[in-house]
Amino acid sequence: MRESIDHHCPWLNNCIGSRNRRSFTHFLLSCCLALGFNTGASICVAIMSVAGRFALQLATFAVGALNAIFLLCAASMLAAQWRYVCAGVTTNEAVRGRWTQGNPFDKGCWQNCRDFYCQTARTAPAQV
User: Fold this and answer.
1) How far is the C-alpha of 84 from the C-alpha of 80, rounded, in Å?
2) Catalytic residue among 9, 15, 44, 73
3) Contact 61, 44 (CB under 8 A)
4) Over 60: is that where the pLDDT of 1 sits?
5) Do the Cβ atoms of 60 and 49 come closer than 8 Å?
6) For the chain, which residues make up each domain, given as ranges?
7) pTM for this one?
8) Can you tell me whether residue 71 is helix, strand or coil?
9) Is 9 designated active site?
């Protein structure tokens, strides 16, 4: 992995780089799980609610639909991150198309994933 800042995320108001990219993918995964649960629960409540409460059904279904939209956004970001991990590139490198002649950091999908998820986080060098 390269020791650098990859890009600045305006939604997290934080720079994403080699030291927190794994945490970012875990954050996206937890968002997808929570949104998936909320979407399913909202739709189930809307379907099973007592007849005669149309306004409640409609509001609950609307919340479920909104959660589903957010779930699609978070899931697409997570899929892109996993694709970049498998390819051994950062988001910035993938968007800019930096490695047109082949990525020198690519070790194959399995080894890239193993390096990304199984290596311990590096600490910053001591300032002199």
Assistant:
1) 6
2) 9
3) no
4) no
5) yes
6) 5-118
7) 0.72
8) helix
9) yes
